[in-house]
Amino acid sequence: MKLNMLSALYAIMIFVPLELMLNVYRIARITHLEVGTVNVLTGIIIIADIIGGSILLFYLTNKWQTNYWTALLWFPYFVLFIYFFVKLFPITDGGDSPNPVTGLLGLGGVFVYPFYILVLTGFARGNRD
To answer: What's the rounded Cα separation, in Å, for the pair 73 and 81?
Structure first.
């Protein structure tokens, strides 16, 4: 149960910044903010997510003594979160579509993310020994 909860938290940690990056135009349209302002706020939230999430996940990995399976098990939760988000909030306005480069950045992040999880888990396990 702890392994699944930690994997879901890892998935949320990458899901939130990715969706913020992909939905900048939608957020700007709904909130009536400038796109530049939304980009700055998104950047601040992403940095806070990375720092706060890393500290939280390091603590939980150390406390719950989980293993390296989280580097694989986060992905099904991530796909599930993406599926539900797309079904709950479909793109109805053509102007809300993200730039193609944003998708490439997201794919790069998804491919690098398991290595981040392995490093974080390794540090937590090393701290435990």
So the answer is: 13
State how far the Cα of 1 lies from the Cα of 122, in Å rounded to an integer. 20
Query: pTM of whole model > 0.85?
Result: yes
How many Cα atoms sit within 13 Å of 3 on the Cβ side? 8
Token digits of residue 101: 């480069």
62-111: per-residue pLDDT in tens?
888 778 888 889 999 999 999 999 999 888 888 788 888 888 988 999 99
> In the chain, which ranges are E strands?
none
CA distance 81 to 11: 8
Distance CA 120, CA 34 (A): 36
